[in-house]
Amino acid sequence: MNYKYADSNGVQIAYHERGEGPPLLLLMGFGADGTVWEKHAAVYEKHFRCIIPDNRGVGKSDQPAGPYSTRMMAEDTIAVMKHAGVESAIVAGISMGGAIAQELALHYPAKVEKLLLVSTWPKFNEYAKAVYENLKHIRAVAPPAYFMELLQLWIFAAPYYEAYSGSLKADALASANAENRQSPSGFNGQLDACIQHDTINRLKEISCPVLITVGLQDIFTPAAFSLAIHQLVKHSQYLEFPQGGHVHHWEDLERFNKETLNFLLL
User: Fold this and answer.
1) With contact defined as beta carbons under 8 Å apart, do 43 and 168 qualify?
2) In the chain, which end has fewer C-beta atoms inside a 10 angstrom radius, N or C?
3) What is the mean pLDDT of the chain?
4) How many Cβ atoms sit within 10 Å of the Cβ of residue 128?
5) What is the pLDDT at residue 127?
């Protein structure tokens, strides 16, 4: 895979591209690099020039000491757009990527044509903050396979886990030998960005078309968070996946890809 590097105030942000057409920025959630978009990018690339960064703190991008913020990571995204020669783009964000996308649309509205927000939030309540702080503590002391298994239990809904528990456990074991594992500074920095993210009083300023997707069985970033965004953003659509969790975009892949592609192509 051919990576390019954009300089964002001294931090190198890696990104790769695939496909041709109007630019589509794909922003991933915490702890994962841009390659995790694979099952969606394989569909989107038939219609779009997909620009896929590794966020600050993960993958081939620099992993400086934190704390990070979603505003900071929105600036990283602007650096990628400039390096790629893109004036404006459709922006899709999963989880933390959706939080970054919100900041991008708020601070650079002319650069965001429309938004796809997946399993994201406008502001954490105290419970969600405690969950994410706890993840820092657990990752610091748990073997990688055990930590990944815990994370899987948070992000996958019970119906999917029941059907695919064997392969999920194998994936958790494989994580112990993963190359380029995220550093503690990158992991903690990204979680800080998630915990401190707050657009609740500014979302009404977003004027571009927005599609919000949510798994109704998401216990990690509950549906109420996405519903709050929908209620505050004027031109938004709200799409539910009743059997899906935080990663409903994988759990109901065919429907997710079909519905989101229809929105992106409008």
Assistant:
1) no
2) C
3) 96
4) 17
5) 97
Q: Report, as an integer, the average pLDDT of 98-117.
A: 98
- Give per-residue pLDDT as tens, 138-175: 999 999 999 999 999 999 999 999 999 999 999 888 87
Residue type, 259: E
For 4-265, CATH number out of 3.40.630.40, 3.90.190.10, 3.40.605.10, 3.40.50.1820 equals: 3.40.50.1820
Quote the pLDDT of residue 200: 98
Domain definitions of the chain by residue range: 4-265
Taking the model in full, what pTM does it have? 0.97
The rounded distance, in Å, linking the Cα atoms of 14 and 16 is 7
Given a contact cutoff of 8 angstroms between Cβ atoms, the answer to whether 125 and 235 are in contact is no
Instruction: List CB contacts of 117: < 8 A, sequence separation 6 or more.
Output: 93, 98, 101, 102, 210, 211, 212, 213, 226, 229
